[in-house]
Write a structure and sequence with these properties.
Elements (H helix, E strand, L loop, with lengths): L5 E3 L5 E4 L6 E5 L1 E9 L15 E9 L7 E5 L7 E9 L2 E9 L7 E6 L14 E3 L5 E4 L7 E7 L13 E6 L16 E4 L9 E4 L5 E15 L5 E21 L2 E19 L16 E5 L7 E3 L4 E7 L5
Parallel strand pairs: 13-16
Antiparallel strand pairs: 1-2, 3-9, 4-5, 5-8, 6-9, 7-8, 10-11, 12-21, 14-18, 15-21, 16-17, 16-20, 17-18, 18-19
Length: 320
């Protein structure tokens, strides 16, 4: 006859089990450095382009490469969005890069949760422990097990830009390079209700950040110069502003906000014109043809990996 234990709370959520392994707090990951900051303006663009900014913070914690940790983000910039960009192991260290939106760099607190079998044994003598049928440790109350406050299936809006879906249009003057689109994403999010018994300052969350997007605004310019002798010289230009986005989240008292954070941005420009120097040998059109160009965006406009993900919210006070 098999024996085990299952403990649930008053709403039926599983708290303790001898059938499933529970994640436990391994402590705060060490802040390594802020590896990127900026994006308060469009790189390579000399015109006015106010952006909200972003920062990428790196953290590390010791852990078994065979047992990936679950990282929880506790923001210090409460009104900014955060998301995990990358997570990897090297030797006996796990690393994670966290995206933070905003003009000011404010690294969040990052807590790591691991399986109890991947953690050192507790030095405390008393507690509750459960084991899987194969003898592997499943739960240990002395190791600060994860207590989930709220879990929600969420998805951000399909297009991240405040200005909607940018367009590519012709009909502009040659070499027109005036930006007329809002690439910021702070107003593009979906809000989901959750219990309001834990205040914003005490909340932390863990969630996949799978969605990415790139969108661009293009202006095609044209000019035709004609002489009184009947010859014409055509001029073309293309101005392109682009931004790349990554899925990101905010949590506050009573709600989860699924949205976006800007990851990269840029500007490129091309201008070319026909050869007008040979017309009647007069050089009326300013010499030979030619072209100029600058910059490139990473890939064509699209949103990828957009799907519902589950965000897990917990009360950070139990682990700090």
């Amino acid at each position: 006859m098999m024996h085990g234990i299952t403990v649930k709370n008053t709403v039926g959520h599983l708290l303790i089990s001898s059938e499933f392994e529970c994640m436990h707090c391994a402590g705060a990951a060490q802040f390594v450095s802020t590896i990127a900051s900026g994006l308060t303006s469009l790189p390579n663009y000399g015109g006015y382009s106010l952006l909200n900014g972003r920062h990428i913070h790196r953290y590390a914690i010791t852990g078994n490469p065979a047992d990936p940790p679950m990282f929880f983000i506790k923001p210090t910039a409460m009104d900014e969005s955060h998301g995990i960009l990358n997570q990897w192991s090297s030797s006996n260290q796990w690393y994670v890069d966290v995206l933070q939106t905003g003009a000011t760099s404010q690294p969040p607190i990052v807590l790591a949760f691991m399986l109890p079998s991947a953690m050192p044994a507790s030095g405390q003598g008393y507690g509750i422990a459960t084991f899987l049928p194969n003898g592997r440790l499943a739960f240990d109350s002395r190791l600060r097990p994860l207590a989930i406050y709220h879990a929600q299936s969420v998805v951000p809006p399909a297009v991240p830009c405040n200005g909607g879906t940018p367009q590519s249009n012709d009909g502009y003057s040659w070499n027109n390079s005036t930006l007329d689109f809002d690439f910021n994403c702070n107003n593009k999010s979906n809000r989901y209700d959750m219990p309001a018994t834990v205040t914003q300052d005490n909340l932390m969350f863990s969630a996949p950040c799978t969605a990415q997007a790139v969108y661009s605004r293009k202006k095609y310019g044209f000019k035709r110069s004609c002489s009184t002798y009947g010859g014409c010289q055509d001029h073309w230009s293309t101005a392109c502003w682009w931004a790349m986005y990554h899925q990101a989240y905010r949590v506050n008292t009573g709600s989860v906000i699924a949205g976006w954070g800007m990851y990269a941005a840029g500007y490129w420009f091309t201008s070319n014109w026909e050869d007008g120097s040979g017309f009647l040998g007069t050089g009326l059109f300013g010499g030979g043809g030619g072209s100029t160009s600058t910059g490139a965006q990473p890939y064509a406009d699209k949103t990828i990996n957009l799907s519902e993900n589950t965000i897990i919210v917990a009360d950070a006070r139990y682990y700090l």
